[in-house]
Amino acid sequence: MFSLLFWKATGERSVRTFAQVLVGSLGLDTLGLINANWSEGVALGAGAAVLTVLTAVATSGGSEGPGLTETVKRQ
User: Fold this and answer.
1) Of 52, 55, 66, 57, which Cα lies nearest the Cα of 21?
2) pLDDT digits 0-9 by tens, 34-71
3) 12, 65 in Cβ contact below 8 A?
4) Can you give the pTM of this predicted structure?
5) What CA–CA distance (Å, rounded) separates 37 from 60?
6) For the purposes of burial, counting CB atoms within 10 Å of the CB of 69, is it exposed (0-12), middle (13-18) or buried (19 or more)?
7) How would residue 22 be classed by pLDDT, with cut points 50, 70 and 90?
8) Overall average pLDDT of the 23-34 stretch
9) 48, 56 in Cβ contact below 8 A?
10) Which of 22, 15, 47 is nearest to 36 (CA)?
11) Which DSSP string do the residues of 1-59 spell out, in sequence order?
């Protein structure tokens, strides 16, 4: 958890999660399944990104990566 590689991988994962939730919420709005505008989609994405970072920190005990079974590839 105290390496730069860990935080780079965690940052990448949180950005991906943010984008996935934003696109998913706006897509569901387009289909009429939920009512979510851009600000609500961004809020949902930001919340999911924060949870992603907290999950990475909570599971950082055994390996170099942000997940339980991950090892970050050294460059």
Assistant:
1) 52
2) 788 889 999 999 999 999 999 988 887 655 666 666 66
3) no
4) 0.77
5) 35
6) exposed
7) very high
8) 85
9) no
10) 22
11) --SHHHHHHHHHHHHHHHHHHHHHHHHHHHHTSS---HHHHHHHHHHHHHHHHHHHHHT
- Average pLDDT score over residue span 15-24: 95
Tokens of 1: 């958890």
| Token output for 26 | 């706006």
10 Å CB burial of residue 63 (0-12, 13-18, 19+) is middle
Q: Contact at 8 Å (CB) between 21 and 45?
A: yes
Residue 12, token pair as written in the block: 């990448």
Structure tokens belonging to residue 69: 């079974």
pLDDT bucket at 16, cuts 50 / 70 / 90: very high
Q: What amino acid occupies position 6?
A: F
